[in-house]
Structures are given as structure tokens and as C-alpha cells.
Design a protein that fits this description.
- The protein is of the alpha/beta class.
- Helix content is 42%, strand content 21%.
- The chain is built from 10 helices and 11 strands.
- The strands form 2 sheets. Strands 3, 4, 5, 6, 7, 8, 9, 10 and 11 form a 9-stranded mixed β-sheet that branches. A two-stranded antiparallel ribbon has the order 1-2.
- Helix 7 links the parallel strand 7 and strand 8.
- Helix 1 packs across helix 3.
- It starts with 6 loop residues before the first helix and ends with a helix.
Length: 301
Amino acid sequence: MRKLPPLGTLRAFEAAARHLSFKSAADELGVTPTAISHQILQLEEFCGRALFRRRPRPLTLTECGAQLFPVLKEGLDNFAAAIASIADDIEPPPSLRLTTTNAFAHRWLVPRLPLWREAHPEVALDVNGTDAVVNLQAGEADIAIRYQRRPPAALSSRELFRDTFWPVCSPTLLVAAPVRCAGDLARHTLIHMYWQPWEPSPPTWPFWLQAARALNPETPAAIGRDALSFREELHAIEAVIAGQGIAILSDLLVGPELASGALVRVLGPPLPGFGFYFTHLPDHPQLAVIESFHAWIDSVA
């Protein structure tokens, strides 16, 4: 059975002997010089010999310390090399960092993620739902599903979907106040959503009225008994599902509710939507995993 001192004492001695300084050894090991001194005193007690000459300065090794130091240094170097070799042989599991809009993450992606995890349990997925544009060139994410009119420039982009916007509401609202023409909307609460000011033709009620008047000049210029406004698209969707009014919503984001009848389209015309673009760096080092994720989206769309 080996009779060895505590490993901490050996590390403290090796660092102090290499630097010939308790302070430098303490800085390297992230402790105080006093802690180094105590560790070395413990080792000297274990050995029954002094390992350093502390006076006069500078610090020097005794004959016993000089005998121990090269053996210990070589041993620690060999330990470090062996551990590094083992660690290098273990490949980290693949992972993907995905960014997309809050609404798409919540309404489309997250409900389908169990299917991804079932198909690719070995790939860790980190989803960042944000309406801010994340910088892929800076390495802030591996994939972005961008929601915009045209493909992002200087990136590899493929269109996944393109949505359409319709006036939508709960069918319970139409029982007492049916909507057969635009004028009937005056009996309902119109729900509005915030759109960025630089978008030239957002799918809002004013733009819907313009499109409706282009088809039927008798469409009133203003409609709606009262209004409810939201900064977040998700909040507007939840308000419509709860029967609080009529909003112009993406048919992709409320697709399940339209399919089940929980929501219904009220009137045309529909307004053109945006593309959902699967975007990444063309020379990304994880292209194989990225392609797997793209193929999975196609399979569950």
C-alpha cells in the first residue's frame, strides 16, 4: 500500500519549487500565500525533512527538496498529459443553438420538439425565442428561422413556410353578431398588434381596410366598436382564442385552432404574410447536424 501525502501538499510544493516563490505558487493555484505555506509545512512534517531554505532570501530548495522536485514535476506533467489525452478522445455531444421569433417558437416549434428529441436524442437543442435579430456571423447562434419578406443577405437561407393573414375570431362571437360584410365588424372589438415602424405594409386593420375597399368601394373607412391593442403577437393570439375580439392573424401560427374550429376566418381579403427562412452560415462547422434539423422540420411541417 502506497504511503503518500495529500495531493494538495504535493501540488503546492511543486508550484512553489518551480517558481521559487510562495506568492507565485498561490496565484497559480488560486489560494493565498499563507495556504501554500501551510501545505508545504504539512508536507515537510510528513517527510520529516525541510524542503525549502526560507532564510536568507531568496527562497531556495534544500537538498531534499531538490531531490523531490524533478520527480514530482515529471509525475504531475505525466498525469496532466494522460488526462488531456483521454479528454481529447471523448467527442462532446452535438448541439444546436437556434434563434427564432417568440411567436414561432411558442406556437409552432415548441409543440413539435418532442418529435425532434425522439428522432435525435443525441443532439442538445438550445432555443432562443426573441424578436431581436441575432448575429449569426458573431457566433451568437447556429441557426436562425428569420421571419421577413425576403431571404436574409450573405447567409444560406431556404424558405420553410410563407403565411397569410386573415381576420380571425372565436366562432362564439359570431352567434350573436354575425359578420357578413365589413360593416358588421362595427359590432365587434378589433384587436390590434404592434408592428415595427419600418415595415411598409404590415398586416394591420388599416391595411386590411385598404385591401377591402379596393375590392368593394362601399367598405367603410373606419370600423370597430372599440379596440384592444397588444405589443406582443402572442398576447393578441391568446386574446382572440379567449373570445375577446377579432384580430388579423397568421394562418400558420393559429393553424391548429383553425383546423379544430376553435377559431374561424371571418372575412376576406387575406393579406400577404412573410417567409420563415431557415438561415445559417454557409460554411458552418456543424452543417451535418444543421441539415438534419432542416430535414426534420420538413418532415413535421
